[in-house]
Specification:
The protein has about 325 residues and is α+β, with helices and mostly antiparallel strands. It is about 30% helix and about 25% strand. The strands form three sheets. Strands 10-9-8-11-12 form a five-stranded antiparallel β-sheet. A four-stranded antiparallel β-sheet has the order 4-7-5-6, with no helix packed on it. The protein has a three-stranded parallel β-sheet with strand order 2-1-3, with helices on both faces. It starts with a strand and ends in a 5-residue tail after the last helix. α1 packs across α9. The chain has three domains: about 80 residues, 3-Layer(aba) Sandwich (Rossmann fold); about 140 residues, ATP-grasp fold, B domain (D-amino Acid Aminotransferase, Chain A, domain 1, 2-Layer Sandwich); about 60 residues, Dna Ligase, domain 1 (2-Layer Sandwich), CATH 3.30.1490. A hairpin with an 8-residue loop joins β11 and β12.
Length: about 325
């Protein structure tokens, strides 16, 4: 059966280029399967454009604010249009790293400690002992992440004239830096419930796994499946599914980890759960789905089918 799918992409967030790549990949996959596709580059008139297109379902390929934080989800709920991925409440919580901790940590999901700090205060003293990480509270794709070490060129304390997230965001999340390995695990909703696909290790060719390393071909090696002790792999998959359920994710999600392999199980920490993972040619969810025997086109159609099975929230 074929459907009319509006692919919502672009927007004005920092992750706009990634969203455009995700959206175009999704649109081509749907067209290859015989579906009618309307491409919509998110702007302020998006509600009118969706209403005019009158699709059966929206594939939400937006990343960042306002496509991933509940804003677009609430709009589509009010319009009565089914859409892929997580709903309003889940999106509001999962994009906020502090709210995510409040939802997951009491249920036994290990996450780094830390606290919200005012960027102005960083010019006076460090909020945590070095090394520590500073990141925006509600951005994805490692946008604006800085690792502050004794050897970093930020100064001590951080200087006002040094480029960093403190110049762009009034508040930041400060967390202890966890040495070790970068891991990620995708979860896909199926008829029998959410299933962890695989665990991938991300090995940047230089520096750390930042925005450029994620989306520039050749800058990061993806080891899928990751070469891990069976117990660590099982823990990653278990925590990813647990986070997916506790947050109320739908369609698919991807949970990111740091693992200090010198500390064994005690060195494994969840960093965040992404409710709308990338669907670009370099993206991790399609890669893990392929490892599990699912083509890119199959994955896209599965997400559309899951959205249609839930139907519209209102209307």
């Amino acid at each position: 059966m074929s459907y009319h799918v509006a692919v919502l992409m672009g927007g004005w967030a920092n992750e706009r280029p990634v969203s455009l790549m995700s959206g175009e990949g999704v649109a081509k996959a749907l067209e290859a399967r015989g579906h009618r596709v309307t491409r919509i580059d998110m702007d302020r008139a998006v509600a009118a454009r969706i209403a005019e297109a009158a699709p059966d379902v929206v594939f939400n390929a937006l990343h960042g604010v306002p496509g991933e934080d509940g804003t677009v989800q609430g709009m589509l709920d009010l319009m009565g249009v089914p859409y892929t991925h997580s709903g309003l409440a889940t999106s509001v919580i999962a994009i906020d790293k502090e709210l995510t901790k409040n939802a997951l940590v009491p249920h036994g999901v290990p996450m780094p400690g830390g606290r919200i700090v005012d960027s102005e205060g960083l010019y006076e003293k460090d909020p945590l002992a070095r090394p520590y990480v500073l990141k925006p509270v509600n951005e994805g794709s490692s946008v604006g992440v800085a690792i502050v070490t004794d050897e970093s060129n930020y100064g001590n304390p951080i200087r006002r004239d040094v480029t960093g997230p403190w110049q762009e965001f009034a508040q930041l999340l400060a967390e202890p830096y966890i040495r070790g390995r970068e891991l990620t695990c995708a979860v896909l909703d199926e008829a029998t419930g959410p299933r962890a696909l695989a665990v991938t290790e991300l090995v940047p060719k230089s520096g750390f796994y930042d925005f450029d390393a994620k989306y520039t071909e050749g800058m990061t090696e993806h080891v899928c499946p990751a070469e891990l002790p069976e117990r660590i792999e099982d823990l990653c998959k278990g925590y990813a599914v647990q986070a997916h359920k506790l947050l109320g994710c739908r369609g698919c999600s991807r949970t990111d980890f740091r693992w200090d392999d010198e500390q064994g199980e005690a060195g494994l920490f969840v960093l965040e759960t992404n409710t709308q993972p990338g669907m670009t040619p370099l993206s991790l969810v399609p890669e893990q789905a392929k490892y599990c025997g699912m083509s890119y086109e199959d994955l896209v159609e599965a997400l559309v089918a899951e959205a249609l099975s839930r139907g519209a929230k209102y209307g």
